[in-house]
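Summary of Year 1 activities. Much of the first year was spent building the evaluation harness for sequence design. The harness presents a backbone, in tokenized form, and records the residue chosen at every position. We chose the following record to illustrate the format because it has been used consistently in internal testing since the harness was completed.
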């Protein structure tokens, strides 16, 4: 039987589009929200899955994780062999590149898998199986060290990282949805709808929770218009405070100030198909 590292990679080749700093919002959220867990992990291996035609996102992920977990290591995994070969010159201590796909061909189970702009080309019906496969590769919890288990962060952003929405999952499934934006470029919160991950983007229609959330967010944003005189940041904070009365907002002002808001997955999860 072929070994994990010898088997054919699972998945299809992406367009490979990438830019420096494209994933900064996701990276900074990971470092802030899960830095403590990364420090507690015995072997803090993170995977940049489907990093694309250039290795910038993997290089940046290592830099940002090491601000909170100095022993972190990053492995960039790509299904296109030529992209792996092109990335090899960028390898250094703590940073390596491997050929592979959703099977995550590593001898260890990573504490983090980041899959950004990977699932947009897949059908919505395929997402759950990919999530399950990736979560099965995450490092398990370790009660002795206080490590609560690995994390999968999967989402989508625009070409220069101004707007980004991602889902965070653990071995039990999806836990949260985070909306992040450059506030100066935002007309209304529902502008982020075009960057919803594949599991949600086709559910932004009346009758679905994510549509109701964005509708309420737009209303709160409009009601917070007087705060715009103090800047877009203050307007965003006021709007998030308002929606927190009706939606399970899980973070606080320190993250809202960054143009973020994180909501419990169960509140936005798609309704079962009829």
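For this record, the design step produced the sequence shown next.
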């Amino acid at each position: 039987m072929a070994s994990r590292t010898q088997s054919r990679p699972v998945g299809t080749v992406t367009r490979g589009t990438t830019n420096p700093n494209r994933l900064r919002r996701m990276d900074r959220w990971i470092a802030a929200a899960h830095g403590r867990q990364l420090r507690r992990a015995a072997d803090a291996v993170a995977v940049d899955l489907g990093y694309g035609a250039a290795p910038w996102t993997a290089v940046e992920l290592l830099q940002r994780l090491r601000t909170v977990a100095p022993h972190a290591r990053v492995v960039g995994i790509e299904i296109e062999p030529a992209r792996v070969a092109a990335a090899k010159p960028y390898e250094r201590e703590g940073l390596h590149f491997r050929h592979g796909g959703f099977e995550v061909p590593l001898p260890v189970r990573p504490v983090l898998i980041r899959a950004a702009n990977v699932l947009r080309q897949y059908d919505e019906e395929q997402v759950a199986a990919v999530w399950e496969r990736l979560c099965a590769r995450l490092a398990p919890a370790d009660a002795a060290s206080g490590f609560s288990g690995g994390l999968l962060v999967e989402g989508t952003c625009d070409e220069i990282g101004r707007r980004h929405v991602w889902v965070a999952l653990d071995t039990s499934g999806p836990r949260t949805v985070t909306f992040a934006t450059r506030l100066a470029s935002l007309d209304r919160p529902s502008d982020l709808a075009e960057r919803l991950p594949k599991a949600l983007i086709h559910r932004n229609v009346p009758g679905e929770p994510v549509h109701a959330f964005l509708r309420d967010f737009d209303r709160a944003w409009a009601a917070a218009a007087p705060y715009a005189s103090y800047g877009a940041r203050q307007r965003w904070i006021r709007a998030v405070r308002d929606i927190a009365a009706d939606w399970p907002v899980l973070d606080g002002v320190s993250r809202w100030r960054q143009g973020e808001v994180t909501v419990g997955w169960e509140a936005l999860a798609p309704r079962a198909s009829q």
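Residues 1-5 have pLDDT under 50 and may be disordered. Quantitative recovery figures across the full test set are reported in Table 2.
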